Amino acid sequence: SAARIRSLIEGGVWTPTLFREALTSVPPLARDAWVDRVLGLGAPPDDGPALPRGCVPYLPCAVDALLRLTEHAPVRAADVFVDVGSGVGRAAALVHLLTGAPAVGLEIQPALVVAARALAARLRLADVTFVEGDAVDLTASLAAGTVFLLYCPFSGDRLVRLLAALEPMAHRRAIRVCCVDLPLPSCGWLWA
Fold first, then answer.
1. What pTM value is reported for the model?
2. How far, in Å, are 49, 71, 133, 192 from residue 113 at the CA level?
3. What does the DSSP 8-state code read for residue 62?
4. What end-to-end distance do the CA atoms of the chain give, in Å?
């Protein structure tokens, strides 16, 4: 049950294998609600005035999309997962629980960062952290990343600036940029 898995997580006795088995035993159409119960999340909060023009309001990424991401990227415990536009921390926490990889969420809305930090504290996820600010200005927080999730956080100039910040990293080491509902502009250094 979701309550049992949450108690294992809070007690620090979960493993990525245990969590993945529990999640995949849930019927696909029920997984999003199950994950929200495990994480103790309610309805998504309203967006605040800190959401800049050109940014997309908070909308949680589907659990099955994140499952596919962890398998196809792939995400391993040695990676650092960076969720650009992390909202309340759902994707960052879920990917960490599925893989054991440290996760960093970048979020511009202060109220969502507070909620995300409370989620990580409540579940005692020491390797899941959240940074408040505009992702295009948080290059230091991007630097450790090896897998980046872009679930349609923004487009246009902001997206071009973020990809420009990722390019030098890609020349130094392999990184994976995972997009959900976000077509990327052409980048000579990035291929499917």
1. 0.94
2. 14, 27, 9, 31
3. P
4. 37
